[in-house]
Design a protein that fits this description.
heterodimer, A: mainly alpha, 80% helix, B: Rossmann fold, 2 domains, 6-stranded mixed β-sheet, 10 strands, 36% helix
């Protein structure tokens, strides 16, 4: 490491005489050397322990009595090749569900959150309804909600109501997820300091204008990371519409697995979901990091 | 250019008048009891007193951010505490500057300033921005229009907040401890702006701990203590020869602390 160029100009900038060339002291050099040694030692310890853990896991699994059988049932290359095209075909349905349900969830969730923050006795019914809705659907297990909607609604034999399992399954996802997302939005709205609302109102903005121009923009910015987290979760849960009989990635795998009692297609479907989720998670991290950076920039005052 | 509205109807009478205003918080904590106050056009009224004496509450009530329990408040002769009055319309005529600036962090300086003129007063964007630039220039903030509030110093932020309050051409300006959150070396730049506004004839009510400034700039000084206006008068009367024992003690403490 060298300290010549940049450090020198920095020092020269702040030095009124402008003559003093900065030379790092022995103390600094010793300190840096110690830090480098420590970092090297830590890295080698980490590498070694990772390697040991990996080898141990590998040996334990491959030496287990059932391993040859398990490898055949869960990790068969032949079945993987056979299942992949079908699973990917099914995945298209999951993606379509994600996009449509995701959009619906964001809109309904935001409306619910706004309804819950409305003040004044006039809005009591709306507020109570929104509260009851979020309480109920946040508590109800998704799988039960799905079963009720997917099998209960067609059982009613209502005229003009669809019996399409994809639409019904998607509706159940929206019902549950909009309750989650409403709470995320509400937390965001309540995190905006009341003085912001006071400032907006004292400028003459109406309650609705204060919400639209001042409170919501700040609230939404704050809840982007948890919202993306919920979308990742929704992405996985689109796989649950398979219980309604819609042929998505999970159901496609199930069809093949059921025929020959080989579970490799499930592993394939699982990996495909993971592969889909990783970019989304990285995107979430990136957005969060970017927002933190912005805040840090502003925090110098 | 004047920052006040010209030829206001009824500008002969007081701009702001409080009549026996009473305000309590929670269960019977009386913050204001029987407060009377008159603010004449183009004058500056300073509210002084210890923390918790009711200065800020008085300003918040005048702007209808707090609902009063009893009494009445009049703006240009119209009772604004009448529940039938449109509160938003009242607030449009009053500018407020807060202790903590309360700028909108997600908007640039320019958007902070033009929000109310554009959305509330329906001023076209170009016109609103032209006025914003003009005011920024006057307050020594030219070139800061595109910045976000977080990038500015406290003194700059508070001056932006003043510009934001002025942009709607208010009839009355309420300043709530606007220098209390500032580093000492930044206080001067903000007080200088207030001095200029007085020159322009802006009607202002100022809650402040800056006694030297209050003495210099105020036409009327009110000493609040325990929710009542214990003593009022010209700044020479209050600071020169206070009549009440409590006022004297308060001012003595301020002098001891080196603030006067």
């Amino acid at each position: 490491m060298t300290y010549t160029d940049t450090a020198d100009t920095d020092a020269a900038d702040t030095d009124p005489a402008g003559t003093d060339a900065y030379v790092p002291s022995q103390r600094r050099i010793d300190r840096e050397r110690f830090k480098r040694t420590r970092a090297r030692r830590a890295a080698s310890v980490a590498a070694l322990s990772t390697l040991v853990t990996g080898v141990v896991l590998f040996l334990v699994i491959t030496n287990s009595p059932g391993w040859p059988r398990t490898r055949e049932t869960f990790f068969s290359a032949e079945y993987a090749r056979k299942a992949l095209p079908k699973v990917l075909e099914g995945l298209l349905l999951n993606l379509r569900l994600l996009v449509v349900c995701g959009a619906a969830v964001l809109v309904i969730g935001l409306l619910l959150a706004i309804a819950r923050t409305l003040r004044g006795p006039v809005f009591f019914p709306l507020r109570a309804l929104a509260t009851a809705y979020t309480d109920f659907f946040r508590g109800l297990p998704l799988i039960i909600c799905l079963l009720m909607v997917v099998f209960g609604v067609p059982a009613l034999r209502l005229q003009g109501v669809t019996t399409d399992p994809v639409v019904l399954g998607g509706s159940a996802l929206v019902l549950t997820y909009s309750a989650y997302v409403a709470e995320v939005f509400r937390a965001g709205i309540e995190s905006v300091h009341p003085s912001q609302r006071a400032a907006a109102r004292s400028l003459g903005l109406s309650s609705g204008q204060a919400l639209r121009y001042v409170v919501l923009p700040q609230a939404i910015r704050r809840v982007v990371p948890p919202l993306l987290n919920d979308l990742v979760s929704l992405q996985k849960d689109t796989g649950l519409v398979s219980i309604a009989g819609a042929v998505d990635a999970v159901y496609a795998a199930q069809i093949i697995a059921g025929k020959d009692f080989n579970y490799t297609p499930y592993v394939v479907a699982g990996l495909v979901f993971v592969a889909l989720t990783i970019p989304m998670t990285r995107f979430t991290d990136w957005v969060t990091a970017r927002m933190d950076r912005r805040r840090a920039q502003g925090g110098t005052v | 250019m004047s920052t006040t509205e010209e030829a206001q109807p009824g500008s002969e009478g007081p701009v702001l008048r409080l009549e026996s205003v009473r305000k309590t918080y929670g269960r019977g904590t009386v913050v204001l009891r029987d407060v009377d106050l008159e603010v004449a056009p183009h004058t500056v009224t300073a509210l002084i007193g210890a923390s918790g004496s009711g200065k800020s509450t008085l300003l918040r009530c005048a702007n209808l951010l707090e609902e009063i329990d009893d009494g009445a408040i009049f703006l240009d002769g119209e009772e604004i505490t009448d529940p039938r009055v449109d509160e938003d319309a009242v607030r449009r005529r009053i500018g407020v500057v807060f202790q903590a600036y309360n700028l909108f962090p997600h908007m640039t300086v320019l958007d902070n300033i033009t929000l109310a003129p554009r959305r509330v007063h329906g001023v076209p964007r170009a016109e609103a921005e032209a006025r914003a630039h003009e005011l920024l220039e006057r307050l020594g903030l030219g070139g800061r229009a595109g910045e976000y509030p977080d990038r500015l110093s406290g003194g700059q932020q508070q001056r932006v907040a003043i510009v934001r309050a002025l942009a709607s051409r208010p009839r009355l300006l309420l300043l709530d401890e606007i220098t209390a959150a500032l580093d000492p070396e930044l206080v001067g730049e903000v007080l200088g702006v207030v001095r200029d506004l007085k020159e322009d004839g802006m009607t202002m009510v100022i809650a402040t701990h800056e006694m030297g400034f209050a003495r210099e700039v105020a036409d009327q000084v009110c000493f609040l203590d325990g929710g009542v206006v214990l003593e009022r008068g010209t700044s020479d009367q209050i600071f020169g020869s206070p009549q009440r024992e409590r006022t004297r003690r308060f001012l003595d403490r301020i002098v001891e602390a080196g603030r006067l």
